[in-house]
Structures are given as C-alpha cells and as structure tokens.
C-alpha cells in the first residue's frame, strides 16, 4: 500500500477495509455522545458487545444448576476449556493440546520456571532483555533467590547499544554464545512493552537450543498482535495475558504454551494441583499426582468460569476475523502512523519503534511530552504515558480505523509545532 498525507487516503482505506465490520463488535468509549479514539489495545483491549451475554450465560447456568453446572446443561463447565484451545492454537501457532488457559501471566511464568529452570552446576545463568516489564524482572529475581543464587550474577541482561533504543538481534545471539557454557535458560519478551520492538522468536529459540539451553517467552504484547508459530519454531514454553490485544477484560485469565515434547512426559518437574490431574480419574481423589497428558497438566485450581466466558467471547471474534488478516491490517495501520509522523519533521519527536513490530508505536518527546499527552486526553484520544517522555499508542485492526490514525497524527503535528 502506497501511503499519502491526503485525508482522502484514510477514507479510501477504511472504505475498502475487509475487516471494517468488526469494529461494530466492540463497545467504543464515548464522551458526550461522541466516540473517542482508543489506541490502548496494548494495555487493555475494548469490550466485545457479546461479553455481557457470555458472562450472563454462565451466571444463568450457575443459578439454575448450582454446582451441577459443571456436568449439566448445553455447555457443562467441565469441558469449557475445550472451547478455548482451538481458537488460541491458531493465534499462538500451536497444537490445541499444547495450550492451557489458566491463572494470570506472572503466576504462569513462575509455574513454568519451576518446570524449565533447572540449574545444574555451573549451568545456572538466565539471559533476558534489559528493562523487561517489571513483573518479569521481579519474577526472575525472586525465583533465582529461591534457588539461593545472586540475581546480579545469575541474570544476564542484553541492553541496547550506547545511544540506541532497541536491542540488536546479533547482540542477543552474541550474548547467548558468550555464556553458552553456563547458560540454562533464555527468557525473552515477544514484543518489548516500551519500544514496541518485535523480537525474532524463531532464531532466539534456535540459538538457545544450539548451546543446550531452554527458550521461553513472555508474549503479553505479542499474543493476538503478531504472527506466532510456537510449535514450528520449537519454543519450549511461553505465557501471555489476555486483557491486551485479546480483549478479555481487566484481570482476564491468562494462557500458556508448552511444547508437545514435554506435555506427556510425567518426569518433567512441576508444581501440581487437582485440576491438572488426569481427567478420567480426577474425581477419584487418589493420592499421587498423575498429570493430564496435555498442557492442561500444568493447571492447578478450578477454572474461573466467568473469566473463561469473557475470554471465549473475544476468541470467537478472532476466529471469525482470522489472524492472517488481522496481522496484515495491524501492520498497515502502524506503518501508516509512522509514515504520517515522519512527515511532521519536528526535532522533539523520535520514533522508538523499529520496522520489525506489531501494532504499537512508541514516540519519545525530548520536550513537552507530558503536556502533549494530557492534551491528547482532553481531545478524546486514549494513549499511554511512560517516563521519561514516551507516548505509546496501538491502533489495532479489530476496532481502529485509518481515519483515527490520520486524526491522531494531525493532533500531534499541531501540538508539537
């Protein structure tokens, strides 16, 4: 697509958008009867119009059947999980048996660290990205301390080069090779939350495996946003949240991927719970943990049916739209935004996000950034502020438009002049 700065381009692109009808499937925030521009799908996705009814269905089943709702009715809760793994497997590029919907992101990371961080002798080092999302940093720090190691000596961070904002892929590979004799795990983000940089998951995984290490990923900003082929790329494990691009509500239930080479291996260590027990014998309540031979073998507790219902409402939309089309439009929207921003030609604006990205675009303002952010809010544009001067926006393909991108760029141009 050849972009222009003419507003007619945005209208033409919207008129010919094959996904334009999906915007009607979401509740767009309004102020005084006017729809706002919501560019925060990277923080909390919008509510599908079907979410309310999906939750009510579970509530109605609860009110009618009580606890028998697990076994009775058109959709017994005992099998609810089966309705989610199919759509999620397409988003993650996985087999349904490799997907489990459970807990929240950091809980799942801790659980999978218990399985896949297995320090042995001098092989105890972990490589991660510098300035990973704080929750990941705290998870790694406390997990390493749990083994009695010093985080400063055990966790190796890869930084951008001096004067740069993104991490070069070759620097990641170099760091893996540098520590190959003592490395046991590479735990990396799929998309950097601050810059929007999309990392090369396939080749990071290969580099880790080449030196005998495990490769795991935090896909909080990747799931539902960028192409993932976790099974084909041979990723060992991955976790994600569902409240961002997956539009499943604040505090939504999260998901995890465990490659099929591990899921039926009863010797893989894990922290177990009742709901991860073999389904056929779960209600026998017998002593001795026997894991389900799928990723569900990592489940702990009774699934939260209301949260699962909200998640299902969004996944049905993803299934209808198709990830290929969503990725294509998402990239085009963010490419268009970057194109418009480069035409502003103001010295106080720096685009942090590289060409290898998803929906998110991060702008660094060397002056006046906070005032610009506050004015965006006053003008009905939902964006995100990060110190010291970054405004993050994410025009997402399911409910954002080219005209909204154009309007945002015009506001930025006026405010930064």
What does this structure look like?
The protein is an alpha/beta fold. The chain folds into 2 domains: 7-35 and 323-416, Aspartate Aminotransferase, domain 1, CATH 3.90.1150; 55-320, 3-Layer(aba) Sandwich (Aspartate Aminotransferase, domain 2), CATH 3.40.640. It has helices spanning 7-15, 51-65, 82-92, 105-116, 134-146, 151-154, 169-178, 201-210, 260-263, 305-321, 323-342, 369-378, 402-416; strands at residues 30-31, 34-35, 37-38, 99-101, 125-129, 155-158, 183-189, 214-218, 237-240, 255-258, 349-351, 361-365, 381-382, 384-386, 390-393. Strand 1 (30-31) and strand 2 (34-35) form a beta hairpin. Helix 11 packs parallel to helix 13. The mean pLDDT is 96.
Keywords for this entry:
417 residues, alpha/beta, Aspartate Aminotransferase, domain 2, 2 domains, 7-stranded mixed β-sheet, 4-stranded antiparallel β-sheet, 13 helices, 15 strands, 36% helix, globular
- CATH architecture group name of the largest domain: 3-Layer(aba) Sandwich
Using the coordinates shown, work out and report the CATH topology of the largest domain: Aspartate Aminotransferase, domain 2
Taken in chain order, the helices and strands follow as: HEEEHHEHEHHEHEHEEEHHHEEHEEEH
Major sheet description = 7 strands, mixed
Uncertain runs with pLDDT below 50, 5 residues or more? none
């Amino acid at each position: 697509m050849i972009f222009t700065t003419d507003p007619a381009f945005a209208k033409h692109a919207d008129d010919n958008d094959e996904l334009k009808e999906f915007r009607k499937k979401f509740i767009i925030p309004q102020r005084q009867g006017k729809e706002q521009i919501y560019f925060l799908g990277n923080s909390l996705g919008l509510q599908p119009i079907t979410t309310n009814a999906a939750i009510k269905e579970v509530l109605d089943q609860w009110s009618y059947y009580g606890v028998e709702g697990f076994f009775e009715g058109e959709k017994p809760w005992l099998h609810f999980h089966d309705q989610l793994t199919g759509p999620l497997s397409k988003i993650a590029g996985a087999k349904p048996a490799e997907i489990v919907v459970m807990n929240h992101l950091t809980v799942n990371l801790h659980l999978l660290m218990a399985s896949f961080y297995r320090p042995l002798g001098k092989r105890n080092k972990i490589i991660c990205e510098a300035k990973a999302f704080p929750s990941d940093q705290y998870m790694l720090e406390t997990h390493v301390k749990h083994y009695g190691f010093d985080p400063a000596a055990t966790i190796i961070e890869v930084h951008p080069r001096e004067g740069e904002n993104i991490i070069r892929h070759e620097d990641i590979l170099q760091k893996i090779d540098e520590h190959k004799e003592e490395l046991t795990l590479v735990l990396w983000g799929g998309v950097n939350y601050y810059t929007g940089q999309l990392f090369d998951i396939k080749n990071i995984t290969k580099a880790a495996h080449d030196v005998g290490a495990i490769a795991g990923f935090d896909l909080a900003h990747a799931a539902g946003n960028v192409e993932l082929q976790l099974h084909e790329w041979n990723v060992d494990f991955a976790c994600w949240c569902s409240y961002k691009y997956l539009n499943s509500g604040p505090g939504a239930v999260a998901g995890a991927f465990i490659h099929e080479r591990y899921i039926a291996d009863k010797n893989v260590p894990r922290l177990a719970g009742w709901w991860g027990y073999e389904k056929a014998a779960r209600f026998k309540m017998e002593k001795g943990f026997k894991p389900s031979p799928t990723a569900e073998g990592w489940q702990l507790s009774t699934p939260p049916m209301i949260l699962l219902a909200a998640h299902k409402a969004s996944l049905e939309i993803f299934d209808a739209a198709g990830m290929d089309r969503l990725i294509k439009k998402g990239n085009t929207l963010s490419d268009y935004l970057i194109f418009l921003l480069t035409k502003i030609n103001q010295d106080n604006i720096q685009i942090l996000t590289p060409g290898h990205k998803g929906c998110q675009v991060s702008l660094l303002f060397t002056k006046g950034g906070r005032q610009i952010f506050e004015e965006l809010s006053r003008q009905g544009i939902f964006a995100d502020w990060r110190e010291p001067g970054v405004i993050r926006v994410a025009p997402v393909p399911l409910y954002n438009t080219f005209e909204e991108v154009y309007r945002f760029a015009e506001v930025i141009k006026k405010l930064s002049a």
